[in-house]
């Protein structure tokens, strides 16, 4: 498979990216992944100082747990801490054989403030649940997966806010089956060079917002791999809409 990793920054722009500074002057980049999948990235979504204040609050006050999950027929400790918030009356979330307890937004008013900031940055989008992850060091990670659980509907929108240690976030096109044959590299090589790529890489900055939209969960997997050089804590919030 041809893998072309690129960090998205001004010095190394992605060929599929369109820069679209919003009214507020905050740079936002839209990456067209093709076939109706799209990522929006706002590196300076939150002012750094406010983001650090929120990082320290979340690190200390959130009731983090590291649950036992069930993957590939085995029980193992999830390789990161987690917590879950949801509005009342929604379908329960269950993943990898684990059903997290749903805390309420009222118990953590700062999460409501962050949610409001997300809603203001992407008008028209609404989120009613939140999965929090804490990566204590570079050996904490999230394996390849997509957030395509039925409760999010056919085209889930996921808004991801990152705090603390910068970590790499990877997106990789899912293999598809055509006439009984698994096709991994679906696009002609020539087109790959100039247009859509099979893989994308983002360094998710402290205070950044990244949004996955359209068919990204149906057609792409994502991961935050282990990184020996990541020595400090990263907290990530993924806002989701249960339909
Ligand atoms: O930590 C991240 O950036 C991603 C977390 C994630 O993919 C998830 O919670 O489903
Ligand atoms: Fe995810």
Automatic annotation (TrEMBL):
Residues 1-27 are annotated as: Disordered. Pfam families: 2OG-FeII_Oxy_2. Residues 126-243 form the Fe2OG dioxygenase domain. It comes from the Eukaryota. 2-oxoglutarate binds at residues 133, 135, 145, 222, 234, 238, 240. GO terms for biological process: DNA alkylation repair. Substrate binds at residues 72-74, 148. GO terms for molecular function: broad specificity oxidative DNA demethylase activity; cytosine C-5 DNA demethylase activity; ferrous iron binding. InterPro entries: AlkB-like, AlkB-like_sf, ALKBH2, Oxoglu/Fe-dep_dioxygenase_dom. Belongs to the alkB family. This is Fe2OG dioxygenase domain-containing protein. It comes from Vanilla planifolia (Vanilla).
């Amino acid at each position: 498979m041809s893998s072309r990793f690129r960090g998205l920054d001004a010095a190394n722009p992605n060929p599929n990216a369109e820069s679209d500074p919003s009214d507020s002057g905050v740079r936002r980049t839209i990456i067209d992944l093709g076939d109706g999948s799209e990522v929006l990235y706002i590196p300076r979504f939150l002012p750094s100082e406010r983001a650090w204040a929120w990082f320290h609050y979340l690190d200390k006050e959130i009731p983090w747990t590291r649950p036992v999950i069930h993957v590939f027929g085995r029980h193992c400790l999830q390789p990161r801490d987690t917590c879950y918030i949801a509005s009342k009356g929604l379908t329960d979330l269950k993943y990898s054989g684990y059903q997290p307890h749903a805390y309420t937004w009222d118990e953590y008013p700062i999460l409501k403030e962050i949610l409001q900031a997300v809603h203001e940055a992407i008008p028209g989008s609404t989120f009613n649940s939140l999965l929090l992850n804490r990566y204590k060091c570079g050996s904490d990670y999230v394996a390849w997966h997509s957030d395509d659980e039925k409760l999010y509907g056919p085209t889930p929108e996921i808004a991801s806010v990152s705090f603390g240690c910068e970590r790499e976030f990877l997106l990789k096109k899912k293999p598809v089956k055509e006439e009984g044959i698994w096709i991994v590299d679906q696009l002609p090589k020539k087109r790959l060079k100039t247009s859509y790529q099979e893989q994308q890489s983002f360094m998710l900055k402290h205070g950044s917002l990244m949004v996955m939209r359209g068919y990204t969960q149906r057609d792409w997997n994502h991961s935050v791999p282990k990184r020996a050089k990541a020595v400090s804590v990263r907290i990530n919030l993924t806002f989701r809409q249960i339909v």
